[in-house]
Design brief:
Length: 154
């Protein structure tokens, strides 16, 4: 066990956990933020994506000790009123079906657009292909991103 401090969504938290505990469980079980989902536990599905120092990571395999002291953003932290432009585009394109993967999808899209505000179709496909959606809402996800890109150009 060890004490680790995290800055999650602009708030500091200190927890006493096993250094190898995945960040996902710190976020969900110790901090109480449940928007980040457990999907596979092996960094393959992307449901657990959060941002660490602005970069998307799979929190299900990231040991707590490795990210202690870093700036972490979860789906709850990308906007105060659920009004981030990506969230709005998701709503406008009626993306969610079951919705389970969408925190990971949205966090991946936010990271992509923060890094590259005008991605090509290929860059979108590459970035978003790593987050699985069992419902198959990929066409809606792509539609949402296209809506967002059109808005940013106007």
């Amino acid at each position: 066990m060890g004490k680790f401090t995290f800055n999650i969504n602009r708030r500091n938290y200190t927890v006493d956990v096993d250094p190898q505990m995945p960040l996902l469980w710190v976020i969900r079980d110790y901090i109480g933020l449940t928007g980040t989902k457990y999907g596979c536990g092996i960094a393959q599905c992307g449901a657990c994506v959060v941002h660490v120092d602005g970069k998307p990571i799979r929190s299900c395999v990231q040991p707590a000790a490795r990210v202690s002291g870093k700036k972490i953003t979860t789906i709850e932290g990308i906007s105060e009123n659920n009004d981030h432009p990506v969230q709005n585009a998701w709503i406008d394109a009626q993306v969610p079906q079951c919705g389970y993967c969408h925190s990971g999808q949205i966090m991946t899209a936010v990271a992509l657009l923060d890094d590259n505000p005008n991605p090509s179709e290929e860059e979108i496909n590459t970035a978003m292909s790593g987050v699985l959606c069992r419902c198959g809402t990929y066409p809606r996800i792509k539609k949402a991103l296209n809506i967002l890109l059109k808005r940013s150009k106007s």
